[in-house]
Design a protein that fits this description.
Radius of gyration of chain A: 14 Å
Low-confidence stretches of chain A: none
Mean pLDDT of chain B: 94
Largest sheet of chain B: 7 strands, mixed
Shape of chain A: globular
Distance between the termini of chain B: 37 Å
Structural class of chain A: mainly beta
Structural class of chain B: mainly beta
Radius of gyration of chain B: 13 Å
Number of helices of chain A: 0
Largest sheet of chain A: 6 strands, mixed
Mean pLDDT of chain A: 93
Shape of chain B: globular
Order of helices and strands of chain B: EEEEEEEEEEE
Order of helices and strands of chain A: EEEEEEEEEEEE
Oligomer: heterodimer
Strand content of chain B: over 45%
Helix content of chain A: under 10%
Low-confidence stretches of chain B: none
Helix content of chain B: under 10%
Number of strands of chain B: 11
């Protein structure tokens, strides 16, 4: 079965600092990989995804993530945090086989300090 | 294109009652998936519908059911509500099998069971 681990349920950064949110997956075959963001009382918004091709993926709001097969990782980064980035971030995997469901990590709450 | 819409946005019910939630997918999307989000269990997959057929089901009791109509709109039903059913219920739509499988989420229905 697929699983997703997000290291750090809470991450705090200063405004302007680097944001790094970690995601590792366990799967014998690299799955499709996604990052979603959730603002309070809202649904999930897709930030970026890796399906195939270039392993460095750029998303919305200045975020990017790199798929590293050897490390089974898909960490999310942003060079300079903004106050509006404060939200909960979820890493998710979707298998390439027949089991068609997104499996989510437990989420990382990002706080941006002024 | 309009996004995924869910109705109602908020709902209060009492134990033992039943509830029906509605989801309208993005135009052209034929697959609809449902997820339950709670603080304790995180985001959990309920089921997926494609072409009016349930194609995949998560580990939830039979009190949770769903259906999909010919226009791809979907409903989920929870019968004999329990306090633990209080959650944010999220619907996601995607193009369907054989595609890149990106799921786009609605704003959710927040259900409170008293």
């Amino acid at each position: 079965a697929q699983s997703v681990t997000q290291l750090g349920s809470h991450v705090s950064v200063s405004e302007g600092a680097l944001v790094l949110l970690r995601c590792n997956y366990s799967s014998s075959v690299p799955p499709y990989l996604f990052w979603y963001v959730q603002y309070p009382n809202q649904g999930l918004q897709l930030l970026l995804k890796y399906t195939t091709g270039a392993t460095l993926v750029k998303g919305i709001n200045g975020f990017e993530a790199e798929f590293k097969k050897s490390e089974t990782s898909f960490h999310l980064t942003k060079p300079s945090a903004h106050m509006s980035d404060a939200a909960e971030y979820f890493c998710a995997v979707f298998p390439r086989g027949s089991a068609r469901q997104l499996t989510f990590g437990s989420g990382t709450q990002l706080t941006v300090l002024p | 294109k309009a996004g995924v819409t869910q109705t109602p946005r908020y709902l209060i019910k009492t134990r033992g009652q039943q509830v029906t939630l509605s989801c309208s997918p993005i135009s052209g999307h034929r697959s609809v998936s449902w997820y339950q989000q709670t603080p304790g269990q995180g985001l959990q997959f309920l089921f997926e519908y494609f072409s009016e057929t349930q194609r995949n089901k998560g580990n939830f009791p039979g009190r949770f059911s769903g259906r999909q109509f010919s226009n791809s709109r979907s409903e989920m039903n929870v019968s004999t509500l329990e306090l633990g059913d209080s959650a944010l219920y999220l619907c996601a739509s995607s193009l369907g099998p054989g595609t890149e499988e990106t799921q786009y989420f609605g704003p959710g229905t927040r259900l409170l069971v008293l």
